[in-house]
Amino acid sequence: MNLNPKIIAVDFDGTIVEHKYPNIGKEMLFAFATLKELQEKGHHLILWTYREGELLQEAVDYCAENGLVFYAVNESYLGESKEVSYSRKLNADLFIDDRNLGGFVGWDEVWQMLHPDGGAFIHKLKNPKAHHNFREKKSFSFWRK
Question: Which keywords describe this protein according to UniProt (predicted)?
């Protein structure tokens, strides 16, 4: 199913990073790679989070340090007037959140749902080991040398 939305609202804690609120957790596997690739495909990304004030700024800065700048933050478009027409309900085509029914499916599944024809983007990762929350399966042998 190719949904091809234009405006995507993305949660921060538990979705872009592991849930460690009010701290910032480790990056979820492929979060930044997927989000940057979605931007390259022309999607507008909105950071949609419970965070506010300094905690929100920390999240925005963390994303920027990882090469991700959002179209808007906690608003439907940049500069939305909170006095005139502001609503916590965003005008977005799709919401990506760890609180979805069934939980967060993972960034590889998000990519495949949105762009099944685009194939994997794993080849674009310069250093897959940089995703520090990725757990490699270690083999165990009863026979030691």
Answer: Hydrolase
- Torsion, Cα 43 131 102 72, to 10 degrees, reads -30
- Strand partners for 47: 10, 73
Instruction: Report strand pairing: 94-96 vs 72-73.
Output: unpaired
Retrieve residue 48's tokens.
């949609």
CATH of residue 117's domain is 3.40.50.1000
The dihedral through the CA atoms of 16, 32, 1, 10 has a sign that is: positive
> How far, in Å, CA of 87 to CA of 74, rounded?
10
Crossing angle of helices 107-114 and 31-40, rounded to 10°:
20
pTM of the model: 0.75
Number of domains, the chain: 1
Interval 32-64: pLDDT, tens: 999 999 999 999 999 999 999 999 999 999 999
